[in-house]
Each structure stands twice: as C-alpha cells, then as structure tokens.
UniProtKB/TrEMBL annotation:
The chain holds residues 203 to 521 of 521 of the full protein. ATP binds at S29, G30, G31, V32, D33, S34, S35. It is an enzyme of class 6 (ligase). One of its GO terms (molecular function) is transaminase activity. The lineage of its organism: Bacteria, Pseudomonadati, Pseudomonadota, Betaproteobacteria, Nitrosomonadales. Residues 2-194 form the GMPS ATP-PPase domain. Pathway: Purine metabolism; GMP biosynthesis; GMP from XMP (L-Gln route): step 1/1. This is GMP synthase [glutamine-hydrolyzing]. It comes from the Bacteria. One of its GO terms (cellular component) is cytosol. The gene is guaA. Homodimer. Its EC number is 6.3.5.2.
Length: 319
C-alpha cells in the first residue's frame, strides 16, 4: 500500500545507497521488467549504468530500433547494441527440437552478454528485472517451464562467472506495480503495457528449424496482426497475441497463377495467470482483415489460420 511518487524516490535512494559510485551492467531485453529497471537506474545513477541489448535475430519487427530510440536517444541511457543474429542463426541451423532450441538461445545469450560485460572491467553490479512472482517461483519448483523461463530472462549463473553483485530493484513488486512504476518514470504506455514476449522470441514461434528467411516473414505477419489488433482496440483486451510460422506449404491462387507457399497461424489468448487461457473471440471482420493484409503484403505466405485451442490442453506458445 504505497504512493507512487514516494515509491519512486524511495527506490532511487535505495539504489544510490546500495551502489554508491560503482558501475552497473543491465541486460535490456525490451520487455517490461528490464525496461523499468533501466529507467529507474538511469534516474538513480545516470552514467554509472551501461545496458547491453542483444539482438538475437528473433525479435519482433523494429524492436531493436524501438529499444534504441526509447532508451539511447530519448532518455540518453548508455546502451550497447549487439547484433548477434548470425551467431544465433548459425547455432540454430539444423536444430528442430523445441527444448534444444531454447537451450541454444539461452546459452548463446549468456555467451554474448558475458563477452560484452568483460569489456566493462569497472562494473561491479549486474542488475536484473526480477520481480516478486519470480522470487516466489524460484523458491518452489526447480524444474519445468517456470524455471526455464526464469533462467533465461534472469540469466542465472552470470553474476558468479562475472564476479558481479546482484542488483534487483523490482524484487518486491508485482507486475502491476512494476507497470505503475514504469509510467511514473515516464516510459511510454505501449512499452509498459506490452504483451509478454518469451525469452527465446520467434525461435519458438517458428516451428521446427529456425531460419532467417522464416523469421523475416513471421516478423512482418506478426506486425500486421498487432497493428490491426491495436487499431480495433483489441490489443488491451487480449493477454498475448502473436503469429506463428508453420513450415508447411499449401496451394493457393493469385491472379492467373498458382502459389505454393507457407502458412501462418494467429494466436490470441485471454488469461489471468498464463497457467490456463482461453482463445480470444476476436471479431471475424478483424480476423478477415488481418488475413487479407498478411496474404497481400507478405509474399511467401498464402494462408492464414486462427488457433482456437484453449490451455489446457494446448499451451499458449506452439512450442
Ligand atoms: P505456454 O506456452 O507454456 O506459455 O502456455 C506460458 C507463458 O510463458 C511464456 N513462455 C516463455 N517465456 N521463455 C520465456 O521467457 C520461454 O521459454 C517461454 N515459453 C513460454 C509464454 O509466452 C506465455 O506467456
């Protein structure tokens, strides 16, 4: 039960007291939690903060540009932008098992992050966007997806390897409090209220082997879906919405010709806790518009389907 402006000041003072004159590194993902940590730390310690943003080639359309725009250009945060697309794609080549893909993406992230951190010998702290539910989750089960999620997002093991102290300024906050804090710190509403995005990104939304050309098609289809959801005022009524690339070809017609191209599935769910979820009953007119736009604008996709599976028995992601 606290008041936000006071909380902001308290949080800032606490960080200053903890960190003193030392330097801090933060892995900025573009997600809500790490974004709020970046804004808070920048406010508290300014130039003592360096963020590392790793583009793994599996981000959403223009995501890297948006992160650089918001943090580096608008707020003046020091952000090192690493384009590691080639490295991630190289290691994912020929790999189609979902858990194997997750492991590779997590491992390569640690690799890239570590290499960047070693270029900052003055850093003494590693900041992470751990929030209260993460703390509870990791106190419980040591296996299963909850742990996988946490270990990717919050790069477990890194502080020890890098010999850094851990700074977790959101540790006591629930998600809605993190969002309020983000708004109080001046972050854009679209960033603070963005749907969650899994650590492995499009890597688990391209079924089977991940390829850069598939990721490029998927990014464009996904962006159209999200644009139209926002335009129809459905974005905030869904908990998560995205496109999935199916590496399956089907026949279509275009003009006088026959096409033989890939399929995209649309997924939109409503949920309180992401443990169970309902598929969103989006208006047919909205689905129709999204489908038309994807097929007309994204050459390489000639069929769009809508996923009407609940969780359980399906999961929210397809892998
Ligand atoms: P599922 O597909 O298990 O997803 O119903 C539940 C929630 O978890 C997210 N998710 C992940 N997040 N790394 C993450 O950081 C992962 O490997 C991962 N797998 C699923 C998913 O997007 C949904 O919000």
């Amino acid at each position: 039960d606290w008041n936000m402006p006071d909380y902001v000041n308290e949080a800032i003072e606490k960080v200053r007291a903890q960190v003193g004159q030392e330097e801090v590194i933060l892995g900025l993902s573009g997600g809500v939690d790490s974004s709020v940590v970046a804004a808070l730390l920048h406010r508290a310690i300014g130039e003592q903060l360096t963020c590392v943003f790793v583009d793994n080639g599996l981000l959403r359309l223009n995501e890297a540009e948006q992160v650089m725009e918001t943090f580096a250009r608008n707020l003046g945060v020091k952000v090192i932008h690493v384009d590691a697309t080639e490295q991630f794609m190289g290691h994912l080549k020929g790999v189609s098992d979902p858990e194997a893909k997750r492991k590779i993406i997590g491992r390569e992230f640690v690799e890239v992050f570590q290499a960047e951190a070693q270029k900052l010998p003055n850093a003494r702290w590693l900041a992470q966007g751990t929030i209260y539910p993460d703390v509870i989750e990791s106190a419980g089960s040591k296996t299963g997806k909850a742990h996988t999620i946490k270990s990717h997002h919050n790069v477990g093991g890194l502080p020890e390897t890098l010999n850094l102290k851990l700074l977790e300024p959101l540790r006591e906050l629930f998600k809605d409090e993190v969002r309020e804090l983000g708004i109080a710190l001046g972050l854009p509403h679209e960033m603070v209220y963005r749907h969650p995005f899994p650590g492995p990104g499009l890597g688990v939304r391209i079924l089977g082997e991940v390829r850069k050309d598939f990721a490029d098609l998927l990014r464009r289809a996904d962006a159209i879906f999200i644009d139209e959801l926002r335009a129809a005022d459905w974005y905030d009524k869904t908990s998560q919405a995205f496109a999935v690339f199916l590496p399956v070809k089907s026949v279509g017609v275009m003009g006088d010709g026959r096409t033989y191209e890939y399929v995209v599935a649309l997924r939109a769910v409503q949920t309180q806790d992401f443990m169970t979820a309902h598929w969103a009953e989006l208006p047919h007119s909205l689905l129709g518009k999204v489908s038309n736009r994807i097929i007309n604008e994204v050459r390489g996709i000639n069929r769009v389907v809508y996923d009407i599976s609940g969780k359980p028995p399906a999961t929210i992601e397809w892998e």
